[in-house]
What we know:
The chain has six helices and no strands. It is mainly alpha-helical. Helix 2 (57-87) packs across helix 4 (129-135) and helix 3 (93-120) runs antiparallel to helix 6. The longest helix is centred in the N-terminal third of the chain and has 31 residues, at 57-87. Bound molecules: fe (ii) ion.
Amino acid sequence: xxxxxxxxxxxxxxxxxxxxxxxxxxxxxxxxxxxxxxxxxxxxxxxxxxxxxxxxxxxxxxxxxxxxxxxxxxxxxxxxxxxxxxxxxxxxxxxxxxxxxxxxxxxxxxxxxxxxxxxxxxxxxxxxxxxxxxxxxxxxxxxxxxxxxxxxxxxxxxxxxxxxxxxxxxxxxxxxxxxxxxxxxxxxxxxxxxxxxxxxxxxxxxxxxxxxxxxxxxxxxxxxxxxxxxxxxx
Length: 234
Ligand SMILES: [Fe+2]
C-alpha cells in the first residue's frame, strides 16, 4: 500500500557538502550551486546532513525515507481535514465542524514531531504544499463532497490509508532498531486509529450514502483502505 520513498543512497562528496560556515554565513536569496565561499546553503531533497547520532547512516537514511513519507501523508490528511472543517454542510454541521478541528489540532502537532525527527536524523523533510502533493499516497479529497456523512466517508477512506501506511512504517523502523522513531510512529498510529474510530462511528448503523459517495464501509468488515471514489490528482 505505502510507497516509501527512500533517499537515493548517494552521498555528496565533501566538496559539495555545505559546511557549518556556509550554513551560518550563506547569502540569502541566492540559489546556490555557483561555487565560492559566499554560496547560499542549499539542500537537495536526498541530502543527508552530518550528525553525531549513534544510529548508523544506513538506518538514518531508511528512517528519513519513512518519516518523510509519513510526513507527506499526515500533512495531506491534515489539509483535507481543514477543507472538511471549512466546507462541511448539513444537519451535522456544527459537531462535525468541531470534531474536524479537534483532529486538526492533534495531527498538526505530530506533523511537526515527524518533520523534526527527520531533521534530527540529518534529513530534509518536505515542507511545502507542492512537495506534499508530489509525495503523498493519500488520494485527493473530492471537492464536490460537502454533505456531512458523505464527507466523513471520504475522510474515513483516507485515514484508513494513513493508518495502514503507519503500520508498515512502524514495522520498518522497528526492524532496523530505530526505536525512537518507532516510539513516535507508534504513538501517531494509536492516535490515527482512534481518529478513524471517531469518524467511522458516524457511519456505522447509518443508511448507505447515496449519490455515488462511498463510505468504504460494510457492516462487518469496516474500512479496507481501498478507495472507490478517489481522484489521484491533487
Ligand atoms: Fe476554525
